[in-house]
Amino acid sequence: MADTLAERAPLPRFFSRGALALVLGIYTFYTLGPFLWLMTMSVRTTAEISTDHYAFPKKFHWEQFRIAWIDSDFATYFWNSTIVVVSAVAVVTLFGAAAAHALARYRFRGNRAVYGILFSSIIFPPQITLISLYQILVDYNLYNSLLGLTLVYVSLQLPLTVYLLEGFFARIPQDLFDAAKIDGYGDLEIFRRIVLPIGMPAIATTLILNFIQLWNEFLFAVVLITDPDKRTLPVGIRAFMGDHFQDIGMIATGVMISVIPVIIVYVFFSEKLIRGMTAGAIK
Amino acid sequence: MTTTSMSSDASGGAANASSLADPRRASWWVLAIFLFPALAVYVGLTAYPAFRTFYDSFFTIEGLDATFVGLDNYRALMSDETFWVSVRNTFIWSFVAPVLDVATGLLLALALYAGVPFARFLRVAWFTPVLLSYVVVAILWTWIYNYDWGVVNLVLRALGLDALVTSWLGNPNTALAALIVTHAWKWAGFNMVVCLAAIHSLPSEVLEASELDNCGWGAKLRYVIVPMLRPTLLNLYILAFIGKMKIFDLVWIMTQGGPLWATETVSTYVYKRAFNWNTFDLGYPSAIASVWFVVVCGAVIILNRLLATRERLEY
């Protein structure tokens, strides 16, 4: 081990190895500590937490999760989040992939202009659409509805989706498309049978990225949803915290319920996710 | 089943031949099928609302009644002290905090690159906070900053530094800094993985040459790595800048802009004026949003020009 390390790159001279290990250890504790603390609190009751906030759980109160899930309505929030996020991600991926394919593959007047328009909204501050979207959804009876929130979420993630997929689709060799044309494939078949299967790695990355970002979305959800039965998890947790400020144990349990899906995705797809988030920021 | 190929056959050899001649061309309806859904979403849910916000900013809107007031909202804005405080706070955040994020990210990436043990585990561990929602991060850090039992004050008391113990989020002098630290905690990992990927994509000859020249780490960092990573670092800076110009969730949950507007940002102020205060006027917050839209877009364009990165930006 020590040999390979020395070969790869000598460590900074001004740092002894021990000091570096200490600094990195402290930093790792700094990033993971709060999360581990949250995990211990989620299986302790508020009474236990109040006596010592940092003790390891003596008894694992798994029933906290059942109480949160059933009595504190976190099941409702969880399913609302699931419905909204899954449908928005499915729609935005399909719409985004179709647009990205057309922009990456075909030459037509205004191609770059369309791309620029779709992409530029990535820098818009959300308030520029927030207030009007509220009015528009009220006008169309979509305010306080999961459908309305889903539509808004599709529009929020569209620029990133088009951007990531266009970059990838443009790198698919043209030869494949020429061959498909000669075999008599129509344009839609090319999209369905060539672009989607070949683009699957990029599409998967986009799916995961969009899932995490929307699962965590707060601002639009808090403005566009007021009905307690339609709250998504971030809004639900925030509301629960507002009503039960002292009930730390139950808040921690609710937070864990919202974090678990993200952690599961991360465990299985950490490489894809990290690559997706870094794509484009490099180069 | 194969309607598309059928129709192109049916429309005769000429069309077929031309599509074979240049497969990068497509008939307008094919383009329309591919582009229409995305463009419809864009027009209906991004462009139209954005224009409507601009339009609304010239009105006072209370419920269904809209009264034209011309530039009154903008005039009121110029003399609105809370607005200027929120602009100041947002600017502090946007210009200063990204330096913290990017520098931490670069140092962490260098540590991993230097080949510390367990690098794989450390990378995953350091990246974890990026995935947590602002709501989760905000709740956790509200507890961490708790006056009585938060870990910050516990550590200070244990070290005998009782004089420094304070209510971190309740004290106007420390609240903004406390939020900036929290935000950096969430985002350092993102900057780390981007820097790491960029370091790995540097031409290895240059790094090897610098090692042959017996170049120390400090010099290597200063004369080789940082200059070569310049485009990446600047991109990261701009990304962080954009993110902070929009900051809302963290502030709203941790301090709601308080105490005494010490952490008020433009985003939280717009939200307060539109949905939280009982002023029931959507025109004035629309004016703030419009001004801020111009500021953000302008700042991004200027930064891009100034820093002369030819690279494409990601969100």
Q: What can you see in these coordinates?
A:
By secondary structure, chain A is mostly helical. Chain A folds into two domains: 11-63, no CATH class; 73-243, MetI-like (MetI-like fold), CATH 1.10.3720.10. In chain A, 75% of the residues lie in helices and 0% in strands. The longest helix of chain A is centred in the first third of the chain and has 32 residues, at 74-105. Chain A starts with a helix and ends in a 5-residue tail after the last helix. A two-stranded antiparallel ribbon of chain B has the order 1-2. Chain B is mostly helical and 315 residues long. Chain B has a single domain (80-307), classed as MetI-like fold (Orthogonal Bundle). In chain B, 40% of the residues are buried. Classes of the chains: A mainly alpha (283), B mainly alpha (315). At the A-B interface, helix 1, helix 2, helix 5, helix 6 and helix 7 of A face helix 1, helix 3, helix 5, helix 6 and helix 7 of B.
Strand and helix layout:
The complex is a heterodimer of chains A (283) and B (315).
Chain A: H1 2-8, H2 17-42, H3 46-51, H4 63-71, H5 74-105, H6 111-120, H7 127-139, H8 146-169, H9 174-182, H10 187-198, H11 200-215, H12 219-224, H13 233-243, H14 248-278
Helix pairs in contact in A: 2-14, 4-14, 5-8, 5-11, 5-13, 6-8, 8-11, 11-14, 13-14
Chain B: H1 3-10, H2 13-21, H3 28-56, E1 59-62, E2 65-68, H4 72-78, H5 81-113, H6 119-131, H7 134-144, H8 151-158, H9 175-200, H10 204-212, H11 217-245, H12 249-254, H13 266-276, H14 283-307
Antiparallel strand pairs in B: 1-2
Helix pairs in contact in B: 3-14, 5-9, 5-11, 5-13, 6-9, 9-11, 11-14, 13-14
